[in-house]
Structures are given as structure tokens and as C-alpha cells.
Design a protein that fits this description.
Elements: H1 7-25, H2 30-47, E1 61-64, H3 70-79, H4 120-134, E2 140-145, H5 152-163, E3 169-175, E4 178-179, E5 182-183, H6 184-188, H7 193-198, E6 203-208, H8 212-220, E7 227-232, H9 255-265
Parallel strand pairs: 1-2, 2-3, 3-7, 6-7
Antiparallel strand pairs: 4-5
Helix pairs in contact: 1-2, 1-3, 1-9, 2-3, 2-8, 4-5
């Protein structure tokens, strides 16, 4: 991999940097970022192969379909020395390369710009299908939000993934049960989510999205079909006054909030 940083330490760095970034840039979605910090950390420190080699022929691919969590991805890449750490100070400010939603225009390590929900997963299916028909062994990983499953394009993509037996594709659902202004179940009920996904012929695994050992086990599980990991998470994880609070979907942290939050993460 690209770094010797332990996944637990990387998750802390993602959380602390994202808090500072969203506060300074006065951007939103810190709750969504904190819920997927552990997923990003395990993926990038233990799972994804970021280098081409003779066997795989091309590097693995990662698409952050829940593009509003961009600050978390930027922080992850920066602490792995894949993008300039100084860029983090400019997040969401005029002229910055680090937009509030994921932008691919400044780094080879970000393949797709995302933010309009329901696009990243279908694109991931296309990437995985291309790899499969070319016969290379690279894998594709896509992280989507549970609220994003309200988009019909994702369910079409699930059909596609099953039909083409994309066993080189892993989809992670950040199941924090909150979206925008209320719970996912009050917005548009997803349950029974596992059973619905199983009915599409997918390999579905449920795990604690904050337990690094469970996440790694789920990622390493061999599958003959496309794999979906339902990662049960807490929105705002790691900061007590942000946890399970829909307020932090749109609110940016104040300097006082940051001071309190960083003490809990360190």
C-alpha cells in the first residue's frame, strides 16, 4: 500500500482534518463524513491496490458516490501523501481545487466527480464490467449512502451487476439511517434492505461500519457475484454532540464546535 499509517490512526486523521476543513470553509456534511471515515480508512490502508502491476494490469478503482463527503476523501488522500496536504487548508474556498463535492480534475487518484446522487454506482458497474471483459484482475469499490438508494439508477445498476456477474465489484452502503432532514425510513423506507438486495442475486454482508476488523473481513470475503457490504454506521461518529443528529448534515462547525470535537477525537 502507500502508507504505513494504521487504519485506526488514519481514521482519526480523516475526522480531525475534515472537521477543520468544513469549519474553515464553512461547508456542510460533516455528519456524513464522520460516518464513513472508518470505511475510507480501511479501504485505503488495507484493501485497495493503488499501483499497476503485471498481474492485475491496472490499479484498483474507488468511486465515492456519496460525493458530499468529499472532505473525508481529500483528507484520506492527503494523509497518504497522494495529494498535497496544504490543499486541505483551502477546502471550499474561492479558487480552491477542493470543491465541496468530489472533483476529479486535480488528481489521478480521484477518477470521477460525484455529488449528484445515483451516478457513482452505475459508473462503477461500467468500470468493473470493462475490467472483466478485458480479463484483468483489478477490483472496483464504490461507497454509497443509504439515502442515495432512493435513486432508481442504483437499482438498475444492481440488476446490471448481477446479470454480468461482476464479482470484481464491491459496493459499500453507509447505513447511518439519516438523510438530509430526517431518517431514511421516514423519507422513503428501505427496509428490509438486506432481503431486497439478496433478491437481486447479490452477495450481501452486514457489518459494523466502525469496526475495522469486521470491515476488513467483509472486504476480503471471496464472492462469485457482486458484493454489497451494508456497513451499519452512526452519522457524526466520533463526536458525541454530532452523533445521530440530522443537524450536522448541513450545518458547518464553529470554532467552538471544533475545539470540543477535536478533544474527543484525539
Amino acid at each position: 500500500m502507500t502508507s504505513n499509517i494504521p487504519s485506526i490512526e488514519l481514521a482519526k486523521l480523516i475526522r480531525s482534518s475534515s472537521l477543520k476543513m468544513t469549519s474553515k470553509g464553512k461547508s456542510s456534511h460533516i455528519g456524513s463524513i464522520l460516518s464513513c471515515a472508518d470505511i475510507l480508512s480501511v479501504l485505503y490502508s488495507k484493501v485497495i491496490n493503488l499501483r499497476e502491476n503485471e498481474i492485475k494490469q491496472e490499479k484498483d478503482h474507488f468511486i465515492l458516490s456519496k460525493g458530499h463527503s468529499a472532505a473525508g476523501l481529500y483528507a484520506c488522500l492527503a494523509h497518504l501523501n497522494l495529494i498535497d496536504k496544504n490543499l486541505l487548508k483551502t477546502h471550499y474556498q474561492d479558487g480552491s481545487l477542493l470543491s465541496g463535492h468530489v472533483s476529479h480534475k486535480f488528481s489521478e487518484h480521484i477518477e470521477v466527480s460525484t455529488g449528484a446522487l445515483g451516478h457513482g454506482f452505475p459508473i462503477s458497474c461500467g468500470i468493473a464490467f470493462r475490467s472483466k471483459i478485458r480479463g484483468n484482475l483489478s477490483k472496483t469499490y464504490c461507497l454509497i449512502s443509504d439515502g442515495e438508494l432512493d435513486e432508481g439508477s442504483n437499482w438498475e445498476a444492481f440488476l446490471f451487476a448481477n446479470h454480468h456477474k461482476l464479482n470484481n465489484l464491491t459496493v459499500i452502503v453507509d447505513r447511518n439511517n439519516l438523510q438530509s432532514i430526517t431518517t431514511t425510513e421516514k423519507t422513503l423506507s428501505l427496509e428490509p434492505l438486506k432481503e431486497k438486495l439478496l433478491s437481486f442475486g447479490l452477495n450481501v454482508i452486514c457489518c459494523d461500519g466502525h469496526d475495522h476488523a469486521e470491515l476488513l473481513k467483509a472486504f476480503e470475503l471471496k464472492s462469485n457475484s457482486a458484493k454489497v457490504i451494508i456497513a451499519n454506521t452512526i452519522k457524526g461518529k466520533g463526536v458525541s454532540f454530532m452523533e445521530n443528529s440530522v443537524l450536522w448534515h448541513y450545518r458547518s462547525p464553529s470554532s467552538e464546535d471544533i475545539s470540543k470535537a477535536l478533544k474527543e477525537i484525539s
